[in-house]
Amino acid sequence: MQLTCLPSTSSLPGFQSSVAVFVFPVFVCVCCGTSTSSSCRIRGGVITWLPSSCSCPAEAATKFFGYGSRSSGDQSAPTGPTAATPHYPALPCFTSYLPVKPCTPSSRSSSSPAVIRHFGNILALSEERLQHGQSWLLTPLRPDVLTVTPWLAPIVWEGTFDPVLIDNIYKPLNLTIATTVFAVGKYTRFLRDFLETAEQHYMVGFKVHYYVFTDQPEQVPAVTLAPGRKLSITWVPKFNRWQEISLRRMEIIQTAIEERIRKEADYIYCLDVDMKFHNRWGPEVLDTLVAAIHPWFYQLDRKQFSYERRPASKAYVPVDQGDFYYMAAVFGGRIEDVHKLTKTCREHLEEDKNNNLEAVWQEESHLNQYLVYQKPTKLLSPEYLWDDLKGRKPNEIKLIRFSAIIKNKAEVRENA
Ligand code: UDP
Ligand code: GAL
Ligand code: MN
């Protein structure tokens, strides 16, 4: 088998075309599952390697996982996935893929079918396409960031998962992913870019049902959706304060779940509209209760998190509590878990209102308070919720997947 892989430079963080990069990948044939360690060299953005341990057609073996070190010279690269040498900074794990072509039946592995648990049922999946590169217990996939919380929820970062494997696990489940987005008042202008970029990067290949909530249904742009995807429009009133437009989403989502979404979808993700997708935002986000870490707060002491600090509010979080500061522009999970979240936040918002209180960041404060006590089962790293205002991408962010655009708040908000 002979392979040539041309990764985009964006899949090689920190890589410049003028330097030689040695990588120590594990090559895996997605067809038969055979893996082999090898070394190869990257120059000018081109990787070439010649593994020979499987007899599948070249097109079938399309995947590599790698660790490596970087040098500007022509040093010979040690082999093996753990071989990153101490004198060169370790490159984080990266993945790159060529399009997968179907396997021939004769080349499939004869191992037993993979079994996964889905909604409490044991589900056997065909073994085809469920093979992946070996995981090395002593080789962390991302040595530079936290990838699991103290309550053992994964934190999703580039390099921590195999996107092909994740797609292949979730595709046969035939899931529908409800996606709520609000465009009220002048925010309808953000819908086109949101939807067009979502069609390129959001749950590609999955059944997505967008639920657009707006006060101006005629302003919803006609965007071509991929087969199996659809969009429904629901009219909502325009409240006259932007804070209220934002916080009332909890109640409207709760009601929409009760009236239709729980009959129409398996998962629900609730997203801000003043955003664009830039890279894959796929089924790796699926889990029971999912929250996204706020891109402005992940390096701060929890005392500095912008939680509601007045004990009289239902959103109150004491200074010595709290795990991460989550941003309300993204939350989701299984329908009933998100229903419970939105219902509780709505009740807490109403209770505060009856006491003439509005939490410092409205529904985001209540979301954060809820998640201190109902821990999310999966966390999305700031890759999944970035902010264009942050400017230069720091090293730990290998790719920006979804980011808030820079908007003129005074111009778009009702009462700003
Ligand atoms: N929103 C809206 N119209 C408004 C204000 C807010 O549709 O006048 C919705 C929209 O979906 C927006 C979300 O509420 O993305 C949250 O508001 P915003 O994005 O302004 O908050 P930020 O992310 O800037 O804190
Ligand atoms: C801002 C963001 C707000 C809110 C706030 C919390 O960056 O725009 O929506 O999340 O942080 O302090
Ligand atoms: Mn926003």
UniProtKB/TrEMBL annotation:
SUPFAM superfamilies: Nucleotide-diphospho-sugar transferases. InterPro entries: Glyco_trans_6, Nucleotide-diphossugar_trans. Keywords: Glycosyltransferase, Manganese, Membrane, Metal-binding, Signal-anchor, Transferase, Transmembrane, Transmembrane helix. It is found in: Membrane. PANTHER family: GLOBOSIDE ALPHA-1,3-N-ACETYLGALACTOSAMINYLTRANSFERASE 1 (PTHR10462:SF49), GLYCOSYLTRANSFERASE-RELATED (PTHR10462). It comes from the Eukaryota. The active site is at residue 364. Binds 1 Mn(2+) ion per subunit. This is Globoside alpha-1,3-N-acetylgalactosaminyltransferase 1-like. GO terms for biological process: carbohydrate metabolic process. It comes from Synaphobranchus kaupii (Kaup's arrowtooth eel). It is a single-pass type II membrane protein. Belongs to the glycosyltransferase 6 family. GO terms for cellular component: Golgi apparatus; membrane; vesicle. Mn(2+) binds at residues 272, 274. An alpha-L-fucosyl-(1->2)-beta-D-galactosyl derivative binds at residues 294, 364, 387.
